[in-house]
Write a structure and sequence with these properties.
215 residues; Aminopeptidase; 9-stranded mixed sheet; 7 helices
Length: 215
């Protein structure tokens, strides 16, 4: 019997793994969060977010509490699967997939961060392709969405290169300042021609039961 099925999810590509965010993996990420490796310039995330906390120790504490809340906050209308990005055996970031009213809409959104010293190597795209495979192939999603501030060139480029279509703009604040978000949408039909055959998923079936996702 598995202790908690979402912690046993794994998505494997030739370059990385996405693994359920166990406390051991979070402990491996904590020094990166403490060192500010999750941040970037221009600021990539909307408010409020624990990764913007100025005190390093409090930043780690608030980040951990947020991940733990996601584990316990699952219900019929909301779930969030936190996954740790592992490269060459080392945790280097996170890639989350989120379902809101999933039973009705079968739509997910994604959120990610990657340690600063691992950027610029194509890992951001690889992470996104991995989580899309999990969403569409493993969890039965019919569409995926993402958003990024207009000046977040890296995230917007990944979305565009993977076939997402622009889906309007939205407004949000980051560190208290207003800014525009570009919204993106990818349907299952748009993803299927780009589906990779070198990505594998384990643990999705048990995770679906935990999230009350029907077969």
């Amino acid at each position: 019997m598995k202790l908690y099925a979402p912690l046993d999810v794994a998505v494997t590509t030739p370059r990385l793994q996405l693994r359920g965010a166990t406390d051991d993996l979070l402990a491996g990420l904590a020094p990166l969060v403490r060192a500010g490796q999750a941040d970037a310039s221009p600021a990539p995330y909307d408010d409020p977010i624990s990764l913007y906390e100025s005190d390093p120790d409090l930043r780690v504490e608030k980040w951990l509490r947020a991940v733990w809340r996601h584990r316990s906050g699952v219900d019929d209308d909301f779930w969030r699967l936190d996954l740790v990005v592992v490269v060459d055996g080392r945790p280097v970031g996170m890639q989350d997939v989120i379902g809101v009213e999933y039973a009705a809409f079968r739509a997910v959104t994604t959120f990610s961060w990657l340690a600063a010293d691992h950027r610029g190597q194509g890992l951001g795209r690889e992470m996104r392709e991995a989580v899309l495979h999990l969403a569409f192939e493993g969890l039965g999603a019919t569409e995926a969405s993402s958003d990024a501030f207009l000046d977040n060139a890296g995230s917007n480029h990944v979305s565009e290169s993977l076939g997402y279509q622009p889906n309007g703009t939205d407004r949000a604040t980051r560190r208290g300042e207003p800014a525009l978000l570009q919204r993106w949408r990818l349907t299952r039909e748009q993803w299927l021609p780009r589906r990779r055959d070198d990505i594998s998923v384990t643990g999705a079936e048990d995770c679906r039961r935990t999230f009350h996702i029907p077969a």
